[in-house]
Design goal:
It holds the Pfam family MerR_1. GO terms for molecular function: DNA binding; DNA-binding transcription factor activity. InterPro entries: DNA-bd_dom_put_sf, MerR-type_HTH_dom, MerR_fam. Keywords: DNA-binding, Transcription, Transcription regulation. By secondary structure, the chain is an all-alpha fold. The protein has 2 domains: 54 residues, Multidrug-efflux Transporter Regulator, Chain: A, Domain 2, CATH 1.10.1660; 213 residues, no CATH class. The chain is built from 16 helices and 2 strands. It is globular.
Length: 284
């Protein structure tokens, strides 16, 4: 098909089609007469692009979906959910300004927003898709407190650590697998799961007692050949090895604990909860 036919079918302009061609999203063949010949695959891609653009997706997000498959759309949607959440928080600050709230309080709220956005950006840059978003959600509840005077340099050191952290890389098939597995997980659902984890850490004896059957089933699954030979196990091992090789536990976690008192308190409880879990296993 020639370009004018493609334009009629897709409703895209000549300039738009040429732009997507320059971005490498379509690869029409050049005929002897110099015209471009667009095949059915090019048409399918352009139709998808047209739909996604009408829905407000950025070209970078569309590239991600086209490259990784439809399941990558879930990561895009979670990013948009977070963007909407941040827009709501900024709107509330504007309301505070209208209400005449003092400048110091306004400045504190803006700093909280900026710090959280900075951590979100760094984590999702270092860790692709679901993994970066999952990590951020695990930390987010502990980022809503002002950093105490004298502790700001720990925050800057943490950001510097993330800036120098190499990107966690997955094979294409691994990335598609994890995105497919998490395709129905909204940002709110991730937050709910994390909230339940925090509640379990705060009340470990009660949680362990109420969930003994679940824990037994989970441990059985983790030891099964189905899990041990699964892509999920391979990805989890790769993730843990990445964190260990880059000293994340030795450097990043202590820095987080240093600038967030609530995270430090949670981390101490997490260590105690883990000890109780291990003690329960030894007693069985």
């Amino acid at each position: 098909m020639l370009r004018n036919e493609i334009q009629k079918i897709t409703g895209l302009t000549r300039k738009a089609i040429e732009y997507y061609q320059e971005k490498g999203l379509i690869r029409p063949q050049r005929l002897e007469n110099g015209y471009r010949d667009y095949d059915d695959e090019d048409l399918e891609v352009l139709n998808k692009i047209s739909v996604y653009r009408k829905l407000g997706l950025k070209i970078e997000e569309i590239e991600e979906i086209l490259h990784s498959g439809i399941d990558a759309l879930s990561a895009v949607l979670r990013r948009k959910e977070y963007a909407m959440e941040m827009a709501g928080r900024k709107r509330r600050v504007l309301d505070m300004i209208i209400q005449g709230v003092d400048n110091q309080t306004i400045a504190e709220q803006l700093t909280l927003i900026e710090n959280e956005l900075t951590i979100y950006d760094r984590l999702t840059m270092a860790f692709p898709g679901y993994i970066g978003q999952m990590l951020f959600v695990a930390y987010q509840p502990f980022l809503d407190e002002p950093i105490k005077e004298g502790k700001e340099h720990y925050f800057q050191q943490y950001i510097c650590f993330l800036d120098n952290l190499p990107a966690f890389e997955l094979e294409d098939n691994e990335y598609r697998y994890i995105e497919k597995l998490s395709s129905t997980w909204s940002l709110d659902l991730l937050k709910e799961v994390n909230f339940n984890k925090i509640q379990a850490v705060n009340n470990p004896e009660e949680w362990l007692l109420e969930n003994q059957e679940f824990i037994t089933d989970y441990q059985t699954f983790k030891g099964s050949s189905d899990y041990l030979n699964s892509p999920l196990n391979k990805i989890q091992e790769k993730f843990v090895n990445f964190l260990q090789d880059n000293n994340y536990y030795e450097h990043a976690i202590p820095l987080l604990r240093s600038f967030s008192q609530s995270y430090d308190n949670y981390y101490k409880k997490l260590i105690q909860a883990n000890k109780k879990f291990l003690e329960m296993n030894l007693d069985q």
